[in-house]
Amino acid sequence: MDEESDLPSIIAYLIRSGQVRISSSDEALSEEDSGSEGEQPGTRDPTTGELTTDLSSLKSNFVLQDVKVKSGRFHPRTDERYNTKSLTELIQKREIGLSRHQKFTQGDLCVINSKFLPNRVRTVATYSQKAFCGTYSQDGNIFLSASQDQNIRVYKTDRSFKLLKTIRARDVGWSVLDTAFSPDGNYIIYSSWSDCIHLCNIYGDHEVHEALNLTPGEHSFCIFSLTFSSDNSEILCGANDGCLYVYDRESNQRTLRIESHDDDVNAVSFADDSSQILFSGADDGLCKVWDRRTLREDHPIAVGTFAGHTDGITYIDSKRDARYLLSNSKDQTIKLWDVRAFANEDTIRATKRAVSAQKWDYRWQQVPRRARKKRLLGDTSVMTYKGHCVLHTLIRCHFSPAFSTGQRYVYTGCATGSVIIYDLLTGAIVKKLDNHAACVRDVSWHPYYNKLVSTSWDGSLGLWEHRSSAAEEADSESEIPCQCDEDEESDIPERTRPSVLRGRRFGAMAKKVVVENSDLFKGLYD
């Protein structure tokens, strides 16, 4: 009897101490592998039993053909797959007239570039505190970096990675959280835990550092994401009060405050260069589409909603064609969305229930062992990418550049200190770049060259480039080791130094051709 009387007090003690947690039956079911309401199973590998990528939605979507053509994997007229695998074969076909107009197409160039993805890193900057943001300008000649040390650094990158200027950020709480270039490349904006965002110039003798007040109210306020409109007239912001803010640069005031989400708005983006369609993503697990021409504070109605994630959204990236966007989430997935396929009300409610059922904090806890692995019923996403880790901070994902890759890849930072590159059409991880000792929050791919910069919480910037075998031998003592895929070609020289082209069937015997940097590009683009 004494033991029975002590049982309630023991249970109460365990609950107070956190050693026991009471969960509802709905929550318990959501953590089990057995099916639950509002979910549909994925495909399992018969050998490992692990969930594999579901390609059913992708196969019926236009993005499949579009990316194949632009990345050189299908011929746009004959609909035939490219069989050429080496640069020497492409050069041979061009020279004997099998290539149209005896020149490489943009697809040919993307095929060539795909064989020489970044695989070696060198550290180009180190800071005393965590690095949060890093992005290339539209022309690739400037790189912008922001750190927790309250400094924003502008690097000149057209010839080398050289510090151009340092801007001391003002009114910073915790860290500078986001930055953006103006369309003309002459200004930058940044945000933090502050009622204001700040505008600074990059060039000129006269220093510009203006505070643009968003007048949010008396609560603690933060802008997590911001971007310029393509005509440079407006700035779009997402805030911790669940609202979108629009700042008009001509009138120098906030013109709109839209109640858009039920939780923090972590990411905003314009759909294309018209700047009429807006995207937003938030901690409520939803991505929403808005029409700038019909936005009204007294009637904030979204054009449509994407639902399918089971936890908050950390970042969104537009393909810049007004049709597709990516979302990165705390549910450890990236999803590809088509604006023609919105979620219905049942799926939206299922997403909200799944998000509200999450009992962990990604900022300091590990991913739950029994994380939800099943797709929500009604999820209209085209593709889901798994293999990276989203912890500690709002990790970002992007489409690879259109010019050099045909947007063939999706790349993201990772809490393990890696950069992950996915094949957009298969979901396979084509590269995992390991170097950093802490979380990689941001990654930026050069708009024209096969190089990218990773921004990490270990306080460093890593410049990743492709190093061919000849360059490896010359720099073997100074380079960080990296395992490359065995089936990858290494025939193309790095853009920054001479190398050797090894031909296989370029005549009766193999030949070696040394190509200088300028000659290589002259041959590729003529």
From TrEMBL:
Signal peptide: none annotated. Pfam families: WD40. Coiled coil: none annotated. The keyword Repeat applies. GO terms for cellular component: Cul4-RING E3 ubiquitin ligase complex. Residues 472-491 have a biased composition (Acidic residues). This is DDB1- and CUL4-associated factor 11. It comes from Patella caerulea (Rayed Mediterranean limpet).
